[in-house]
Amino acid sequence: MRYLTTPIYYVNDVPHLGHAYTTIIADTLARFYRLQGEETLFLTGTDEHGQKIEQAASQRNSSPKEYADKISLEFKKLWDKFEISYDIYARTTDQRHIDLVKAMFLKMFENEDIYKGEYEGHYCISCESFFTKTQLHVNETCPDCGKATNLVKEESYFFKLSKYQEKILKWYEEADPILPKNKKNELINFVQSGLKDLSITRTSFDWGIKLPQNLQDDKHVIYVWLDALFIYVSSLDYLNSGKNAKFWPAHIHLVGKDILKFHAIYWPAFLMSVDLPLPKFIAAHGWWTKDGEKMSKSKGNVIKPKEVVDAYGMEAFRYFLLREVPFGNDGDFNEQALINRINSELSNELGNLLSRIVGMSAKYSDNKISCKDIHTFFQSELELCKEYLKNAINHIEQVQINKYLEELFKALSLANLSISKYEPWNLIKNQETQKANALVALCANILAKVCILLSPTLPKSCEKIAKALNFELNTSNYVNLVLNDDLYDFETTSCEPLFIKIEKPLLAQAVSIEKEIKQESPKIKIDDFAKIEIKVALVKNCENIKGSEKLLRFDLELENGEQRQVLSGIAKFYKPQDLINTQVCVLTNLKKAKIFGYESDGMILSAKSGDKLVLISPKELVQNGSLIG
Ligand code: MSP
Q1: CATH of the domain at 451
Q2: Which of 332, 373, 472, 552 has the fewest CB atoms lying closer than 10 Å?
Q3: How buried is 69 (Cβ within 10 angstroms: 0-12 exposed, 13-18 middle, 19+ buried)?
Q4: Smallest Cα–Cα separation from 251: which of 278, 271, 285?
Q5: Are 478 and 532 members of one domain?
Q6: Which of helix, strand or coil describes residue 366?
Q7: How many CB atoms lie within 10 A of CB 465?
Q8: Do 358 and 477 lie in a common domain?
Q9: How far is CA 273 from CA 194, 201, 270, 310, 587, in A?
């Protein structure tokens, strides 16, 4: 039984790369657990209370709930577009969550873990976190995010965090719950340096869960982190012993390194206080930067996951994020690095292998692949492949997803290299047909095994591969092909290339095209259009302008023989003599301009087609001066 969670995302802003990263890791793990045949439950959702959300809503003249509804839906839509396989989409404004938080607060209170006092210290609204003066950075800024903090002095209830210090340390030691393992020491040092009791209610704003009624203290709302963390339990309908209650404790909470403290210190203490079992693992990933810099709106370098997916496709995006950085390390989003991964790994190693197998089997054996001779000829390759797959599974169990992918691609290289090494086309020529066919079968089996293990990362592409080899991506094939080292026969069908090579960056292009469209197409009213006068004109004469590569000078004739001189930048695309006696379209009520020493009275219209300009003219001859509209 495996329950895994992403953090629930704050609704103060729209989804960004960091959110997509955590969610894609969780999705990959959930798909992997399901593939293994584990009963799996995957939760994601939104964190909607607290001062930060209240402020964000009021800046947009909205009520916190309305605002939260809107952004929460945006997150959900994005995950649906990305085909994230979550089972529960949880929100902290859901009634069953509110009920559970109140019940848990009461239980902590009854267990004498909560007392009333006064909090005096600093608060970072962006991190929703308390700090003492000595913890702050220069100018009293937040040590975690660097933003300004507020000095707060207010009545507050406290949770006896200090009481749990030794128990938390013991948990780290005995259960070894922190992934990657190297993050454990930082936590141990932090906890050993002394845990202070934690302020768990606020009175200076309203947007949060009120205290349980029995406590009759209406001016307090519950601290947003206490509220948010309990989503992991409330969503299982734990209080009512709902059908999902059996999933607790969680197998893994996935978090970013910035929120490890809340999950690995506060959360276990809260759980111990209410007598609930602790999660098995808390896995913390690093942060993404953009071309080496922290992403921020003010720098304008925030990566929008949807834009990347629109430009490169979901599968390439998933692969890049998961492959590029070791789990736990920070990573840099660099478009060229993404392109390199697509071209050299997805297209060359994976896509090509499939087309080679399909091509060879069509040529040599009527699309039928038989595994009967693989052991005879390629025992050492089989052993090597087995080792790579075993390593891959160990790595993904430890959430070392980049290493798991690395091992799978080693197996793909092994297949590709075997083709170059044994040259099946020469084997066929030399009448070693049996060996040639065994080689194709070796490669098909390696690809099928890799495909099964790769399917949690690249679900769509792996479906295509499975279809081309004619087998199913399911648990029994996982058991047979991957765990039991079985070999299969296949029958191939041709399929489209899996990944097209990328010649030049698409992202800047997509963004700039979007900008162009946005900037150049403001909506106008019909009266604005009425101000524009476009007419058909006859080209009486046309010539190049000395010293200008671009410009042509036109003598045009309009209605009643009216003559005009107009300059146009189309010299690269037309010879003047070809245009004489043809009709063109002219914007006639444009202010006169002096270009290259010539007066130009109007603008000849042309369409931009790639780098070219193409003149526009009426489909049939019309009277000179005819109005266009
Ligand atoms: N609401 C809390 C979590 C409560 S869980 C009970 C929260 N939300 S968040 O929206 O601010 O952040 C969610 C996740 O996004 C965190 O895991 C955080 O580490 C991650 N990221 C935010 N920016 C990031 C990057 N630039 N790179 C990678 N992940 C980052 O915290």
Answers
A1: 1.10.730.10
A2: 472
A3: middle
A4: 278
A5: no
A6: coil
A7: 26
A8: yes
A9: 18, 17, 5, 46, 78
- Confidence category of residue 447, pLDDT binned at 50, 70, 90: very high
Same domain, 484 and 561: no
DSSP 302-347: PPPHHHHHHHH-HHHHHHHHHHHS-TTS-EEE-HHHHHHIIIIIII
Please indicate whether residue 18, judged by its CB atom, sits closer than 6 Å to ligand 1: yes
The whole domain housing 555 covers: 528-628
b/e 252-291 (16+ beta carbons within 10 angstroms → b) = bbbbbebbbbbbbbbbbbbbbbbebebbbbbbbbbbbbbe
Q: Is the residue at 610 inside a domain?
A: yes
Q: Is 22 in the pocket of ligand 1 (CB under 6 A)?
A: yes
| 89 C-alpha to ligand 1 centroid (Å) | 16
* Ligand 1 lined by 382 (C-beta under 6 Å): no
Residue 82: pLDDT over 50: yes
For residue 262, the 8-state DSSP code is I
Residues 416 and 538 in one domain: no
Does 256 contact ligand 1 (Cβ within 6 A)? yes
Quote the CA–CA distance of 73 and 92 in Å, as a whole number: 13
What are 177-209's pLDDT values in tens digits?
999 999 999 999 999 999 999 999 999 889 999
Query: Cis peptide before 180, with omega less than 30 degrees from 0?
Result: yes
Residue in 475, 508, 118, 453 with CA at minimum distance from that of residue 303: 508
State if residue 127 touches ligand 1 by the CB under 6 angstroms criterion. no
The tens digit of pLDDT for each residue in 157-173 reads 999 999 999 999 999 99
Q: Phi/psi at 116 (nearest 5 deg)?
A: -95, 140
Q: For residue 535, give every residue at least 6 positions away whose Cβ sits within 8 Å of its Cβ, in sequence order, or none.
A: 558, 559, 585, 586, 588, 625, 626, 627, 628
| Last residue within a domain, chosen from 466, 491, 516 | 491
- Count the domains in the chain: 2
538 and 593, same domain (yes or no): yes
Best residue among 4, 19, 297 to mutate for probing ligand 1's pocket (most ligand atoms within 8 Å of CB) is: 19
Query: Which CATH number fits the domain that encloses residue 610?
Result: 2.40.50.140
Tell me: do 544 and 468 sit in the same domain.
Answer: no
Q: Are 552 and 611 contained in the same domain?
A: yes
- Is residue 541 within 8 Å of 556, Cβ to Cβ? no
pTM of the shown model: 0.81
Which has the closest alpha carbon to 46: 24, 17, 77, 3? 77
Asked whether residue 193 is assigned to any structural domain, the reply reads no
Q: How many whole angstroms separate alpha carbon 228 and alpha carbon 104?
A: 12
- Which atom of ligand 1 is least distant from the CA of 46? 1
Confirm or reject: Cβ of 128 under 6 Å from ligand 1: no
State the Cα–Cα distance between residues 221 and 201, nearest whole angstrom: 5
Based on the domain organization, do 457 and 366 belong to the same domain? yes
CB-ligand 1 contact for 47 (6 Å cutoff): yes
105 within some domain: no
- Tell me whether residue 388 is in a domain: yes
